TrEMBL record, chain A:
This is Outer membrane lipid asymmetry maintenance protein MlaD. InterPro entries: ABC_MlaD, Mce/MlaD, MlaD_Phospholipid_Transporter. Residues 39-117 form the Mce/MlaD domain. It holds the Pfam family MlaD.
UniProtKB/TrEMBL annotation, chain B:
The keyword Transmembrane helix applies. This is Intermembrane phospholipid transport system permease protein MlaE. Belongs to the MlaE permease family. NCBIfam families: MlaE family lipid ABC transporter permease subunit, perm_MlaE_1.
Length: 157, 261, 282
């Protein structure tokens, strides 16, 4: 028969298992309970995204302001389309802002750097669903080396 | 040995192998394929969760802590050469969540709880307690096997979660408290690199599968034991060996399915 | 009553009116080793029937065949007219509630105390309130003289007490038939005497049908109403204890008197002694 002690210990065991799961999900994987309210989305078109992955951060001067939500390919233009989920706290980026795909460190993960543009009277702020026009794709190491070799050989002549 | 005998021996071995799989499957099916009576079933499962889960907690927590610490120390020594010791967090956490958490927990569980299960059921069989239930018109599969099976399947993912968490904490102890990695860097890089669907859910799936397999093997070995002391000791050993091998082989299969692409 | 006892006195048990268990032409073997070859016997209601034979002939197997824990190769076992081995699982479990078995080792559940052991089947099969279960359990324990040991664990009991506790558990559901597997094996004279008395009393007071499998000749002949002797895969003799004692079958005489040599040889079959000793050990 079950004693009170066994029931208590099993209850404790179950709770600590579930607690461990919750800590892993919310603290280690850092899942935030997302609601539509505190986010807005931006769309951007790149010529090349390199090794960018979903959930990569969007940073302004090193501060994370959003994350990559989705990466797709435009059917007609055949270029990558990146959807960004931006934090509602940071919603004062002018339309003239630009996005570029950068690498943290020499070999690190790739992220999107947002450079805020100039503000003028007739410049509006980026809002939900807006498209960022000014983008710079990832630097591809092979292309760079190719360019370097090309410029060196053209100098030699 | 003539070639004919050899072929016959191979055939006999194969038939025995297949029939033991069949018997094991049938045993599990007959044990769990019915609507349980919650009033009688739940207390039985709770009792077995105490035996299988709660009593395995100490070994799981202690091993998790030490494995996390060792992982962090070894990782730090390598990463520091490249100046990337900040990546220690993801290294420890990913190793634990993707592989070591489910696998080491399952191996420890097979050694701690699986062998005890086999011995217990083997002893019940050799002291005719199973026959006795049968003659009381109570199905030993439902009374004895099913609650232990469910308790094992429920306990394993919980234990794996605890193992991983304690392991990450061990990594934190070595990396941050001892080797002086910045707490912020350790945790933010760790958090950025762990995807909950990819890593934590897969950890749960793996450990649940291992829970099924280890408990199943342990129960089958106990149920089919030769009812004498020698048979019980042999069955206990083979539970640990077979469950461990099954866990490692299945781990490769699951990893290939989950992360293989 | 008189009619039945006169039937038992006669040499033809098959004419017994409506026996509880009938075993017809039963054959059983473990793999290639034949245990039984065409055995037929009848177990009358409300009597103590004993099945005797030298050890190692599978007397326990016979009980398991009656309880349908094993399936015979040939033949049938009828319990109250029902063929035990063709019943569905649910039907079989219904029939098994009408019988119980006392195992040689007692087979008490080691993780619960004596009280819970006896109460186990009641709790599983009846929806009686706990207070009634308690009274029934205490009554059964009183019957076997272990009411004082109700809250001890099986491991704290002596072998004889374990067997009596198991007996209390076996009669908890008031079965029609109890199968006793070697109830006297390994018991000291006192607990042996207690068990003999208990089996006889239970049989008489509850009108229980008892089947005792044993090789303890003296005790069995003391309590049995009818005895079957099995050897060499067959029933070699049957009858009341008086008839068996008066029999002139040499195999039976050896068994009953416990003579070391006789039709069952002292030596396991082997090559000639002198020859084997003198031959070169290659």
């Amino acid at each position: 028969m079950l004693t009170r002690k066994i029931e208590l210990l099993v209850g404790l065991f179950l709770l600590s298992g579930v607690l461990a799961f919750c800590v892993l999900v919310f603290n280690v994987a850092n899942v935030k309970v997302d609601t539509k309210d505190n986010h807005y989305t931006l769309v951007a078109e790149f010529n090349n995204i390199g090794g960018l992955k979903v959930r990569a951060p969007v940073k302004v001067g090193g501060v994370v302001v959003g994350r990559v939500a989705d990466i797709t390919l435009d059917d007609r233009k055949l270029v990558p389309i990146v959807t960004l989920t931006m934090d509602k706290r940071y919603d004062h980026f002018p339309e003239t802002s630009s996005l570029s795909i950068l690498t943290s460190g020499l070999l690190g993960e790739q992220f999107i750097g947002l450079t805020p543009g100039f503000v003028d009277d007739d410049i509006e702020m980026l809002g939900n669903g807006d498209r960022v026009e000014d983008t710079r794709g990832a630097l591809i190491l092979e292309d760079l080396i190719g360019q370097l070799l090309y410029s060196m050989s053209s100098k030699d002549k | 040995m003539s070639p004919i005998n050899l072929i016959a021996a191979i055939g006999r071995y194969a038939i025995e192998l297949v029939s033991s799989y069949g018997k094991a499957g049938l045993m599990l099916w007959r044990a769990i394929a019915h609507i349980p009576n919650p009033k009688k079933g739940v207390p039985l499962v709770i009792k077995q969760m105490y035996v299988l889960g709660v009593r395995s907690m100490v070994i799981i927590l202690v091993s998790g802590l030490f494995i996390g610490m060792v992982l962090a120390l070894q990782g730090y020594n390598i990463l520091v050469d490249f100046g990337t010791e900040d990546s220690l967090g993801p290294m420890v956490a990913l190793s634990l969540l993707r592989e070591l958490g489910p696998v080491v927990t399952a191996l420890l569980f097979a050694g701690r709880a699986g062998s005890a299960l086999t011995a217990e059921i083997g002893l019940m069989k050799s002291t005719e307690q199973l026959s006795s239930l049968e003659m009381m018109a109570i199905d030993p599969l439902r009374q004895i096997i099913a609650p232990r099976f469910w308790a094992g399947v429920i306990s394993m993912p919980l234990l794996a979660m605890m193992f991983s968490l304690v392991g990450i904490f061990g990594g934190h102890l070595v990396g941050v408290e001892w080797k002086g990695i910045d707490t912020g860097a350790f945790w933010s890089i760790l958090q950025a690199s762990i995807e909950w669907r990819e890593d934590i859910v897969n950890c749960l799936i793996k450990s649940t599968v291992f829970g099924v397999v280890v408990t199943w093997i342990a129960l089958y070995r106990g149920y089919e034991v030769q009812p004498n002391p020698e048979g019980i000791s042999r069955a206990t050993t083979s539970t640990v060996v077979q469950a461990s091998l099954a866990v490692l082989a299945l781990d490769f299969l699951l990893t290939a399915l989950m992360f293989g692409n | 009553m008189a009619a039945i006892s006169s039937n038992i006195m006669s040499e033809t048990p098959t004419v017994l009116q409506n026996p509880l268990v009938e075993i017809n032409h039963l054959a059983f073997g473990w793999g290639k080793k034949v245990i039984y070859d065409d055995i037929s016997l009848t177990i009358p209601r409300g009597k103590v029937t004993a099945i005797m034979g030298p050890s190692g002939i599978g007397k326990t197997t016979l009980l398991k065949l009656i309880g349908a824990q094993l399936t015979p190769d040939k033949g049938e076992v009828l319990f109250d007219g029902l063929n035990m081995h063709t019943l569905s699982r649910t039907e079989l479990y219904q029939v098994r509630k009408r019988m119980s078995m006392l195992f040689q080792s007692g087979a008490l559940f080691t993780d619960m105390n004596v009280f819970d052991n006896v109460a186990f089947a009641l709790r599983e099969h009846s929806s009686l309130p706990e207070s009634i279960i308690r009274s029934i359990v205490l009554m059964k324990l009183q019957a076997v003289g272990l009411r004082g040991a109700a809250f001890m664990m099986p491991s704290e009991l002596s072998g004889g007490m374990q067997r009596r506790a198991a007996l209390a558990r076996a009669i908890a559901l008031e079965p029609e038939m109890v199968l006793y597997d070697e109830p006297f094996a390994g018991q000291d004279p006192i607990s042996m005497g207690m068990l003999v008395k208990l089996i006889r009393e239970l049989s008489d007071s509850l009108k229980l049908t008892s089947v005792v499998v044993s090789h303890d000749v003296k005790e069995v002949l003391g309590i049995a109403d009818y005895v079957y002797v099995i050897a060499n895969k067959k029933v070699i003799a049957e009858g009341t204890p008086e008839q068996l004692r008066a029999s002139d079958n040499p195999q039976l005489i050896q068994f009953i008197q416990g003579a070391p040599d006789g039709p069952v040889p002292f030596h396991y079959p082997a090559a000639d002694y002198q020859q084997e000793l003198l031959s070169e050990s290659n």
